[in-house]
């Protein structure tokens, strides 16, 4: 029989709501292997053991998922309880005496491992999980040193057909130990009840039952969750063993959440991306784009400086390229120069480029997005950065989404919203078009006037929250939308930031913090510049075609729309090669470390502008990264305050400065959302367009949307 596990697991989680009941300051005495300790009364035995650093084996337990108690590996002996108990599901009680090192416990754990290994194939030499497999590690430490399995010449081990859950994940079901981590993750974190089990005991199988694919913006995390090699990463398959890989801590630049990631690389090639744990941002998850779009770095790379001659590009040496760039810039007046920042530009490059342009006498530095809804523009951080910590979103009880679909625009942010929906029973209201959400929402309408309906609803909330999509905060309707939302936020009279803007580009907050302006498209149309310096900005050239008299200097790592129009191309570095500082949508500064060296003659972006300054006879008083960091700290102390969420000041003043001249909504002012469905998620910018893996997955999502099982 098919068991989707969703309702069962949720009920199981409610049984253990004991862990959510906080009795601050209270502890109870227990004994662990004869050692007296004090632990909070809401702890399970597993939590108590882990806090005291006592090793206890487990397969099915995961601290961010509900308790299943499937594997029975965490059996412990409790004095006076008779039978052995599973540590993951039993709560502590006053005076409890726990033994994890008794002979009875060791024999039980050895027996459980033996039963698991009876059906487990000897695939270790060819399994991608080899060397980082929980079953291998626990078998060595807690298992027997010999096998009693003798039935191999008769029935043999269990053999089932392998399945492809998606273009990204391959299921080797012979290796599955039925821990159900993948099922619980899909149901509780992804919000899709696709995976479940059929059969029972020896015949139990994990799968999708109907011909449905496991497609989600967070699907890759089940590969990390799997304690064995049952779920494998298809793009990474057979590429390397984990002990052959070097590691570098980095930041995901495919969205603005600032997800902490780890780059695994070998021979100057990034082979795999894994999430890094950060309790206040991404917990231990990473989006599928952040994990698998990495193969885009090998496509259409710019590896040498080039000058356009007619319809062709001729390679140059760096000295000649910088000399030509200097001649282009100095040949026109300062008010005819304009710089545009792309979505992946780090703060070092933004600061250096702005210093060079400013020293030339020009103030026109812009990001591609527009956000002109307030008379203060972006002078206050509260007008463009989140006014609330991601972690606090899970405590909200009513959330209003205005013209945004966080599920695809910012999957990690959406994970916190879904957590509020699950654990805090938050009500979620939407103003905008119908989109694919992974929680129940109430639609209030799709035009600007529908936002006013939320005023009465949010007044009854203890902790309301308003999230506005950045696409709505433009010159056309931005003032109307933000005027209504600001009035609602002011009427709620809360001590925290109720109103927040959901951004999409990794460079957006850092650029505005460094003094860049919004609205590149308006600036291009109004100012008619003679020279444009593009820092990897491609999307803007899909909206605006430069006149023949306009010269473009393109500094970036990938050839696309921007480089097609460029008169001079200066090859820069990707985030895996240069590293750098990034501010996420909270305004939290985080540093990404470089992993590999840039290909060909590509150079670190900020060093390109440092060299260009010398050719232009400009004196920048920094020549290395250390002195550049000092300059960044002068511009904003937030740049030197790494890893910390900064409270936003003057949030109430920003609301008062909203340009209210045109705040009267019209029925025709309909909101739009760019990323409404899963197929819109995988290829959403130039970086992901160039990823073969993302293109293949987008095609699968498009085809699956047409299938009979799409709505099942």
Question: Can you walk me through this structure?
Answer:
By secondary structure, the chain is α/β, with parallel strands linked by helices. It folds into 4 domains: 6-128, Roll (Ubiquitin-like (UB roll)), CATH 3.10.20.740; 152-298, 2-Layer Sandwich (Alpha-Beta Plaits); 320-373 and 510-640, Rossmann fold, CATH 3.40.50; 385-502 and 651-676, Dimethylsulfoxide Reductase, domain 2 (3-Layer(aba) Sandwich). Helix content is 29%, strand content 16%. It is built from 25 helices and 27 strands. The chain has a 7-stranded mixed beta sheet with strand order 15-14-25-24-23-16-17, sandwiched between helices. Strands 2-1-5-3-4 form a 5-stranded mixed beta sheet, sandwiched between helices. A hairpin with a 5-residue loop joins strand 26 and strand 27 (589-592). Helix 3 (103-118) packs across helix 4, helix 8 (318-330) packs across helix 20 (605-615) and helix 9 runs parallel beside helix 20 (605-615). The radius of gyration is 28 Å and the shape is globular. The protein starts with 5 loop residues before the first helix and ends in a 7-residue tail after the last helix. The relative contact order is 0.12. Belongs to the complex I 75 kDa subunit family. It comes from Heliothis virescens (Tobacco budworm moth). Its cofactor is [4Fe-4S] cluster; [2Fe-2S] cluster.
């Amino acid at each position: 029989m098919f068991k989707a596990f969703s309702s069962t697991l949720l009920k199981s989680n409610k049984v253990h709501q004991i862990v959510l009941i906080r009795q601050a300051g209270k502890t109870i005495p227990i004994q662990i292997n004869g050692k007296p300790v004090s632990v909070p009364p809401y702890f399970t035995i597993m939590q108590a053991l882990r806090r005291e650093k006592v090793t206890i084996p487990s397969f099915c337990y995961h601290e961010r998922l509900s308790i299943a108690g499937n594997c029975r590996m965490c059996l412990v002996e409790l004095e006076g309880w008779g039978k052995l108990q599973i540590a993951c599901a039993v709560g502590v009680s006053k005076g409890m005496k726990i033994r994890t090192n008794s002979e009875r416990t060791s024999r039980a754990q050895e027996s459980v491992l033996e039963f698991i290994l009876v059906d487990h194939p000897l695939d270790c030499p060819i399994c991608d999980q080899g060397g980082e497999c929980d079953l291998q590690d626990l078998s060595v430490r807690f298992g027997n040193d010999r096998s009693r399995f003798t039935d191999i010449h008769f029935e043999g081990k269990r053999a089932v057909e392998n399945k492809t859950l998606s273009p990204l994940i391959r299921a080797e079901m012979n290796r599955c130990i039925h821990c159900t981590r993948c099922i619980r993750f899909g149901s509780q974190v992804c919000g899709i009840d696709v995976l479940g089990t059929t059969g029972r005991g020896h015949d139990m199988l994990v799968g999708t039952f109907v011909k449905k694919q496991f497609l989600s913006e967070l699907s890759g995390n089940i590969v990390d969750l799997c304690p064995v090699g049952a779920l494998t990463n298809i793009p990474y398959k057979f590429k390397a063993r984990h002990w052959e890989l070097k590691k570098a801590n980095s930041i995901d630049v495919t969205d603005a959440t600032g997800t902490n990631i780890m780059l695994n690389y070998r021979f100057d090639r990034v082979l795999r991306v894994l999430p890094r744990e950060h309790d206040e941002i991404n917990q231990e998850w990473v989006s599928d784009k952040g994990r698998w779009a990495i193969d885009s770095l090998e496509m259409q790379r710019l590896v040498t400086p080039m000058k356009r001659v007619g319809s062709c590009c001729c390679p140059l040496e760096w000295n000649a390229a910088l000399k030509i760039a200097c001649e282009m810039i100095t040949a026109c007046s300062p008010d005819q120069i304009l710089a545009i920042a792309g979505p992946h530009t780090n703060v070092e490059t933004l600061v250096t480029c702005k210093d060079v342009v400013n020293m030339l006498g020009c103030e026109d530095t812009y990001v591609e997005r527009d956000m002109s809804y307030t008379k203060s523009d972006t002078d206050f951080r509260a007008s463009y950065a989140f006014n609330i910590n991601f972690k606090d979103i899970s405590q909200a009880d009513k959330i209003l989404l205005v013209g945004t679909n966080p599920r695809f625009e910012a999957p990690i942010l959406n994970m916190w919203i879904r957590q509020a929906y699950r654990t805090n029973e938050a009500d979620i209201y939407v103003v905008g078009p119908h989109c694919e959400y992974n929680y129940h929402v109430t639609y209030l309408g799709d035009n600007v006037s529908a936002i006013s309906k939320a005023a009465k609803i949010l007044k009854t909330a203890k902790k309301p929250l308003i999230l506005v999509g950045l696409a709505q905060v433009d010159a056309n309707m931005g003032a109307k939308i933000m005027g209504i939302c600001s009035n609602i936020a002011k009427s709620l009279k809360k001590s925290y930031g109720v109103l927040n803007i959901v951004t999409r580009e990794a460079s957006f907050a850092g650029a505005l913090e460094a003094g860049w302006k919004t609205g590149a498209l308006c600036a291009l149309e109004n100012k008619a510049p003679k020279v444009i310096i593009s820092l990897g900005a491609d999307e803007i050239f899909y909206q605006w075609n430069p006149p023949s008299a306009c010269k473009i200097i393109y500094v970036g790592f990938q050839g696309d729309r921007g480089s097609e129009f460029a008169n001079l191309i200066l090859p820069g570095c990707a985030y895996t090669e240069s590293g750098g500082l990034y501010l996420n949508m909270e305004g939290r500064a985080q540093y990404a470390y470089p992993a590999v060296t840039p290909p060909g003659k590509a150079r670190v972006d900020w060093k390109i502008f440092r060299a260009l300054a010398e050719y232009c006879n400009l004196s920048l008083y920094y020549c290395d990264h250390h002195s550049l960091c000092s300059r960044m700290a002068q511009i904003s102390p937030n740049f030197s305050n790494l890893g910390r969420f900064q409270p936003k000041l003057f949030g109430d003043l920003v609301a008062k400065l909203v340009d209210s001249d045109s705040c009267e909504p019209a029925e025709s002012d309909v909101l739009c959302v760019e990323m409404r469905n899963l197929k819109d998620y995988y290829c959403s910018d130039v970086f992901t367009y160039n990823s073969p893996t993302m293109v293949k997955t987008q095609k699968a999502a498009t085809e699956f949307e047409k299938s009979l099982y799409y709505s099942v």
